[in-house]
Amino acid sequence: MNSNVGKIPSDSATDYYWAVFSIFLFCAIVYPIVSIFSSPPKRMFYYVYSVTCMVSAIVYFSMAGELGYTLVNLSTSTWFRRIRVVYFVRYIQWMINFPLVISSIFYFAGVSFMRILVTVFNIWLCFLCLLAAAMTVSTHRWGFCAFSLVGYACALVHTCITYKHDIQPLKRKAKIGLICSLVYFFVLWALYFVSWGLCEGIGYSLPIGEAVFYSVLDFLEFPVFGAIFSWMIDLVGMHRFSKTYLRSFLTDNEEAIKLDVISEAESPKEKEDEPEAQFTDS
């Protein structure tokens, strides 16, 4: 009997995964600290990206400890006859983090809950099919991969529709900032398919190459994107984004008027108590 069946190959990149785990854990700690010095509307985004970093840290901790994987024989469906290590925890990470990132963008633009939910569903469809493709031994894996691409395309089309209805009416600088954020998000997402095709798809990339490719994309998509998005908000000006979102954080009327969230006519003013009339006996 082969004693290596069910065991991870010896040329794994566990040392590299430990280093990446440390980076994500550091980012998960830094974001809440930075949020202390930010305004309440921005604080929520630091919490969101701290969660994405913590989820990523847990996933890379699992991979560094040689957990959360399965072995798949790709010799029947690829050009390279070898057994591949497929980390299914990686797909769990993407199914949690990608919806959080896109929801934070949409929420700040004032997009409705149902539109956000449709985009999240398309993201789940994309990565569930990609996971099914990675776990499939036969050539049917490419059918699952095609369904995954359909999920990506639906998310992209729905985002374009959302832009027309919710983002386009915003002020010019806010619109440009959100467009750049969405382009960044979807371009990096497309690169995940390239990495998947080389690694799980045809089994070409070595374990260290797979680890580097995926970890760089994860780092750019989550902690780096969070820093860029925060910088974009400061550069554009928070008052140029959704007033509906900002109203939920502003309790001071003077601050709301200053940020152009409400007008002076909408601000309730306290009326001075009129002195009671004094009556004297005639």
Automatic annotation (TrEMBL):
Transmembrane segments: 16-34, 46-71, 91-109, 116-135, 141-163, 175-192, 212-233
Keywords: Membrane, Transmembrane, Transmembrane helix
Compartment(s) where it occurs, according to its Swiss-Prot or TrEMBL record: Membrane
Gene3D superfamilies xrefs: Rhodopsin 7-helix transmembrane proteins
Topology within the bilayer: Multi-pass membrane protein
GO cellular component: endoplasmic reticulum; plasma membrane
InterPro entries: Arc/bac/fun_rhodopsins (IPR001425)
Residue ranges of the region described as Disordered: 263-282
Pfam families: Bac_rhodopsin (PF01036)
Family designation: Belongs to the archaeal/bacterial/fungal opsin family.
Name listed for the protein in its UniProt record: Multispanning 7TM plasma membrane rhodopsin family protein, implicated in signaling
The gene coding this protein: mug73
